[in-house]
Amino acid sequence: MLARTARTTRTASVLTAALALTTAGVNGGITGGTASAGTVEHRGIVSADPVDTTPHVLDGIVNAIALVGGTVVVGGSFSEVRDAGSTRILERANIFAYDLASGRILPDFAPDLDGPVNALAAGTSGTVYAGGAFAETGDVATPRLARLRLSDGAPVTSFRARASGGKVTSLLRHGSRLYVGGDFTHVTGVRRTALARVHAATGAVDPAFTITPGAPRGPRVKVYAMALAKDRLAVDGSFGTLDGLSRPQLGLIDVGASPAKVAPWRTDAYAAECKPTFPSYVRGLDFAPDGSYFVVVTSGGSGGPRKLCDSAARFETRARGETDPTWVNHTGGDTLYSVAVTGAAVYVGGHQRWLDNPHGRDSAGPGAVARPGIGAIHPVTGKALRWNPTRTLGIGVKAFLAHRGGLLVGSDTTRLGREYHARIGMFPLP
């Protein structure tokens, strides 16, 4: 990537403004990686020109991003990172952090996690929650769930939640509550199948939240992603029921009730089968900033226009009775992993080659538009927007995080917006 003086000035001013806005608003909100709720509204579409200052992840994949004040925390499966413009390689075990404004990697935050990080959520008092397939942080036992101090990377010992029987794939904090999703069977010795709510400070399991996914589609029950808006928690994954009620791969939970209960909202849109190798094919989901609708993205293989395989679909949160999607945008045979809804756009990422492609079968059907690896959809019409920065495909975009200054993107490849940005990048708001 070539340095350009005029652009460097623009990047610095954009990030300074973003930092001021973000610090003012993020600490009390809901923040995470692919599980983040749609609480950040953008009035326009982000630039297709990434900022120059983001650091580089030199191997593996980025799975999750969180923003804690002015600090970006990045999690995944990797071992080496370096600052933009530097040749010095830093060792980082599946997690690192950097300053949003300058892009500089935090030297003192270097937890030694012995397994991949799949999910992150911002904590209070300069902390971040990490979930994944790890067992230890350094020499401290933190089975699959930890709360870490940004100042030195050490686990917060007063937080005692531990997942067992499987991994953590999704985290979402709202005030004093932390929602945990995955394919685990217990949390701190309490039976919780794939979904739990714990106290954000102590990690104590909440007895008022016992929603249980069941009827696995595939070898075991798993919650893949979560998002929260007002009193509705959306969950998707490899399940057919929630508390015994039919909810094929997707459901809403009324978390304003005590105890929490499955909301009457339901859809059979994901009851259909895709390819046999994808018994469960839902992936990311995100609410609009006002909570009125949410968007789900999927894998599954080409299923044709009548199925929601390899697609993005919008659903209305307060719809009554059996609910169909408001619109569907098909890739024509490629997976979408992540989605971020900002009001101005629905950003989608995976290893897709096209959007607007309902009749494609690993091919560009009539009306298909090329959107390699990343794209944006109009939230009302469901059609692809002209925004087309491109990305080297690889596995795909595993993490989006929209914030007041732009859109952070995490993946497994090294070119984003036609420039070198290894596995992490940011598109700023103009």
TrEMBL record:
<protein>
    <recommendedName>
        <fullName>PKD domain containing protein</fullName>
    </recommendedName>
</protein>
<dbReference type="Pfam" id="PF17164">
    <property type="entry name" value="DUF5122"/>
</dbReference>
<feature type="signal peptide">
    <location>
        <begin position="1"/>
        <end position="28"/>
    </location>
</feature>
<keyword id="KW-0732">Signal</keyword>
<dbReference type="InterPro" id="IPR013431">
    <property type="entry name" value="Delta_60_rpt"/>
</dbReference>
